[in-house]
Design a protein that fits this description.
It is a single chain. The protein is mainly β. Among the domains are: about 325 residues; about 100 residues, no CATH class. The protein is built from one helix and 77 strands. The strands form seven sheets. The protein has an eight-stranded parallel barrel with strand order 21-23-26-29-32-30-27-24. A five-stranded mixed β-sheet has the order 3-4-7-10-13, with no helix packed on it.
Amino acid sequence: MASSLTLLHFIPSTSNQAHAQSNIVPDDTLGANGSVVIPDASVKGLPAELIEGGVQQGVNLFHSFDQFNVGQGLRVYLANPAGIENILSRVTGMNPSDIQGTLGVDGAANLFLLNPNGIIFGSNASLDVEGSFVGSTANAIAWGDDGYFSATEPESSRLLTINPGALFFNQVASVSGNIINTGTLAVGKDFTLSGLNLDLQGQLSAGGNLTLSAMETLKIRDSIALPFVAAAGGKLLLEGNQRVDILALTDPDSGLFSLGDMVLRSANPISGDAHYWSGGNFSIEDIDGSLGNLSSPRGSIIRSAGDVSFNSYDGASLQIFAGGSVTVDNVKITGSDPTNNIQETVTLSNGTTISIDGSTRPTLDIRAGTKDIGNPSAITGNPNLNQLELSKAPTTANIKIGEVIIEPPNGQVFITNQYESNSVVTGSIEVTTINTSSEVGNAGDVIIDSGKDIILIGTNTDNQGLIFADTSGPGQGGQIKLVANQEILLSDRFFLSSDTFDSGNGGEITIEAESVTVDGAVLGTRTSGEGDAGSVSIKTKRLQVLDGGRVSTNTFAQGDAGNVTINGSESVKVIGIGVSGEDTFPSLISTQANLDSTGKAGNLIINTQSLLVEDGAQVSVSTFAEGDAGSLTINASELVQVIDQSPDGNFPSGIFAQANPDSTGDAGDLKINTQQLLLQGGGQVNAVTFGEGDAGNVTINASESVQIIGVSADGNLITGIFALAFEDSTGDGGDLVINTQSLLLQDGGQVNASTFGKGDGVNLTINASESVKVIGVSPDGKFPSGIFARTVGDSTGDAGDLKINTQSLLLKDGGQISVSTFAQGDAGDVTILAQESVRLIGKSPDGKFPSGIFALAVGDSTGKGGNLIFNTQELLVFDGGRVGTTIDASLIENSLTFLPDNQIDTTTLLSNSCILRSREQPGSLIITGSGGKPTAPGSAKISPFATGTVRTIPSDGSSSSSTQPDRPWQIGDPIVEPQRVYRLADGRLVLSRECLQ
């Protein structure tokens, strides 16, 4: 039957702290084989008292004493007969053992000293034990089910051959006396002190495991004259069932050291003002083995070659260096550590540097996955402690932190697994809450640097799922810097902010990772006071803002909002909406001056390869108050896409620069630089004003193409680029300029620069080096594709001018270009400069919208219509296409009428004339459509040739001048459709046909 070793308590006893006589008195419980003390022996070449005798059972030797004390400066050794591996000694008397000299074994056996009344190791005490040593105030050692070796019931004891070396641990059942140490105690192998209470000073070291276990309280102290050192070549266990109380920061050489795992265990929070060095894992545990709590009013430094884990920390500056992972659920930093903490300049993985100073700033400093945990210089006298041999190498450098609170001002949180990192292990960093906010001074900084991911997941609970570095007073907001080699994820309503609510400025937020995802979370800064909000900067390959996520800066008061700068080298995607109860809100990248604020909104810059704004998401700069909105600049080297509306139809996908209702500040300028711009399904780009402020300018530079296609799925939102001054606004609209190679507006897509208010509309300029195509109407037939500059409704402002520079302009199937006034303001001019051609073809399928170019004064408007100016090689209008300064229902389809300075009698020219070639050369007529146009649909361009006179057409329809004399056309004469446009020698234009020869 297998047996185990346990320390048992049978009869409670009161610890007697009075020193016993410096003598050793065997009892008679072992009979004739009792212990024998030889007072004048020589052990290891020096005088000593040698204890022989005892009862041998296999590898075990048993001794029993009434009193066991070692006098000041004396040496007491227990003999080690051949074959003996364990020497078990008990004290059955009523006094504690007082060790003031050297206690040892004359051999390599393990030594057990059992005294229920207590054990005292004085300042000159030492151990000379090559094997293991166990000093305990337990009443008995149990042999599992086979009895026990008892100090309180010696007559019932059984002396067995069981080896207790591997069976003693975790077998302490009850302890009554105390153990006190002020000496320097070292053993070759394992070292255990187990008592009711342990009061430890001095130095304790073991070549193997070191166990310091108290049934009630483990107390550790140091002093300037006497540093405390607990050093283990293996594992170190500090256990106080009710309390562990450590204060070992007075002497810089004090500390707890182990080459193996280090565990501090108690049912209550451990008070641990100390520096810890572990070659294995480090953990704080509850009695049941679950993670426990650490308190350190003066601050702690934990160095571990393995993993570090505990439930919570409360105290001054805490620094953790771990070769593996770090898991801490809650941390509260209550102050700095002015005498014992680290001051250091650290280089982050992105090359920037930060200063760590836990001595002047309340600091949480966690570094996982590091190969540099420092050298335990305080360990001396045992060469094994200088050899780092982990029984199990760390496998991950993950850091998982619950809630971190820095209570005093000017704090600092630094969390990294990139410091002197071990290339074998890597990991992510997960944080629930960090709050370094301050009401009286500067808020604390937050720096997180991860070799893989940074994971910030909200909990949908108040004050949980956040990083706050806010200031509510004159101090500055804290800086927040997140750096990750792979992804930074903010999700589930996580809030990350550095705000100001008073005169202090907010802190900056800097994000840098291979990919950044803001999924239903908020990342930003704001000011609600006199101070300015901090800026937000994101540097990544890929940025995603999803499901109502927000990246923003705001002002709600006098201070200015910060700038937002996004550098996404591959892509930036802003997609969808968020849902909270019955409310929905768009995914958003923005800067904003909010209601009642006087500060300015910040500027927003996005630099990327590809930008996608989809499903109701928005990118915007705006003002609701006195402050101006900032500018919005997008530099996308390949593509910008703005697509669709939100699923609920409440939000268009858009890129906006707005001055909102009741605002007096100006909207900012909007500029997009890209190769291709695609707007589709209700997606919009606009600069608008609803208030007194002016709308900003819109500039689109798309080196290849701009495509504006369709309307939203519900048909209510027009896809387009807009520069508008809305109803009740008094500000002017901004200018709208599109520079591209090819512009396509199709299926209801529009470019619109209009005013509905008192301010003037904008000038609209399109420079398309190859082509402009305006095709069709929306699928429901409500909206024509078009380019418009209008003054509408009760507006008094003038519409702006519309100018198009291109090689080829095509309007087809209802596509339109117009400047118009529906109100008091004047319409602007339309100027078309087309190097090759202008073609206006057909009308919408329902005939409602002709393809055309118009300058109109419509309805009850009092403003003037604008002018139409064309400069092109080819002007083609047919199949319902129109050009005009008004829309008249009697206008003949497929006709073109010019009104030159010298009016022509078109009654004659259009119905009863032809152009006759003459061999004589009295002058010349250039057949042209305002300079080289085709004379009929589909024909080639014409060249000038000489003509003679203009003659009437014979009544039979022939063109021979010899069959009928010239006379004016009369009612009843046939009407012959003109074939071409002709320019006479005096420059007049006519519509006619060529006379037959």
